[in-house]
Amino acid sequence: MSDPIITVEGLTKSYGKRLVLEDISLEVPRGKLVGLLGANGCGKTTLMKIITGLIHDYSGTVLIDGHRPGAFSKGETAYLSERTYLPEWFRMTDSIAYFGDFFPDFDKNKALELTQRLGIDPHQRLKTMSKGQKERLQLVLIMSRRAKLYVMDEPLGGVDPAARSVILDIIMKNYSENSTMLISTHLVHDLEQSFDHVLIMGRGKVLFAGDIGPIKAKGMSVEEKYKEVYGDAWQID
């Protein structure tokens, strides 16, 4: 693959005696929407945290746009984590101001527009928000950046079916042109029509990596490919 946005070589990560990622090597193509698939416990979130510079104690090589994860790569990467990391006393207005000060690529006007579209009260404090409201708040902040790389950990995980289409529309229409989006999801059916490339993980390894074109050429859906290559790798020791 020429000029990938993410390059991983020989990546291994353990928590104590528990091996989470085992000698992973992969490349993520630039300017594509990439699905990261796999069961809970297979290492997807750990991989994302390493890519976004939140975990540093690992062996192997990880490069984001040619740089090791750090201050430079964080400036190019927008990360939607599975947990809210903003102070509980923050309001939406505080969150927008914070992101505006911290990230030069943050668009405050877009954030205000998405806040209104998602029905978020800009003056409500996080400590009084539901889990779903906090997830929508984080989505607004991430999708208001003009990042080179978007990394999203289960963006639809806590979203009810009625709101799912709205969330998907915001994700697909608001990430920067020519950017790369890496999305971890269990909801393969909802997103597979948007994927350009997929990575399938199991037991801390990459079981499959490839473009969608050859999969569709065989008359298969991404979900069918997932079931074909996964086998019993969903089992967790």
Structural class: alpha/beta
Give the helix level as a range of percent: 25-40%
Calculate the mean pLDDT score and round it: 89
Largest sheet, described in full? 6 strands, mixed
State the order of secondary-structure elements, H for helix, E for strand: EEEHEHEHHHEHEHEEHH
In whole angstroms, how far apart are the ends? Answer: 34 Å
Number of helices: 9
pLDDT < 50 stretches: 233-237
Architecture of the domain at 6-85 and 149-230, CATH level 2? 3-Layer(aba) Sandwich
Largest sheet, spatial ordering of strands: 5-6-7-3-8-9
Percent of residues in beta strands = 15-25%
In total, the number of strands is: 9
| CATH homologous superfamily caption of the domain at 6-85 and 149-230 | P-loop containing nucleotide triphosphate hydrolases
Describe the overall structure.
The protein is α/β, with parallel strands linked by helices and 237 residues long. The chain has a domain at 6-85 and 149-230: P-loop containing nucleotide triphosphate hydrolases (Rossmann fold, 3-Layer(aba) Sandwich), CATH 3.40.50. Helix content is 34%, strand content 25%. It has helices spanning 44-51, 71-76, 92-102, 108-117, 131-143, 161-174, 188-191, 212-217, 222-230, and strands at residues 6-15, 18-28, 33-37, 59-64, 77-80, 149-153, 180-184, 197-202, 205-211. The strands form two sheets. It has a six-stranded mixed sheet with strand order 5-6-7-3-8-9, with helices on both faces. It has a three-stranded antiparallel sheet with strand order 2-1-4, with helices on one face. The longest helix is centred in the last third of the chain and has 14 residues, at 161-174. It is globular, with a radius of gyration of 18 Å. 37% of the residues are buried.
